[in-house]
Predict the structure.
Amino acid sequence: MLPIRRTAAAAIGALALAGALISAAPAQAESASPAPAAPKTAKSAPKGDGAKAICKRLPKTQSRVGTAIDRLKGDATVLGSVARLEQRVANAQTAGHTEVHTYLNDRLTFRKSLLPTLQKRQDDLKAVSTWCSAQESK
């Protein structure tokens, strides 16, 4: 008797699901044809430049940029360094893994381009730090 009850319960569940799907189809067809919704817009434009928040986060930002520069300038034992990736590129070339060599070489090109960008950012942050100090004394 137990297997028959499970079968009957499964059949009732399948019928209920089919009924729900059939009744939902006309509702979906009706809701698909109305005019498109208006695009979402921001509540308002920013009123300031966020200087107060930038000054507040400045020490942490300077630390993060400095850490990233130190990592990139590290030797082959430092994870994430340019030297380590150069070594991996050389190893892939020596092993004859052309596809891996190409992939790693592209990553190396990008990583090398990060260093001047981060150094410029570090200089910019020094200027911002000077500005923030001047604003605190006012």
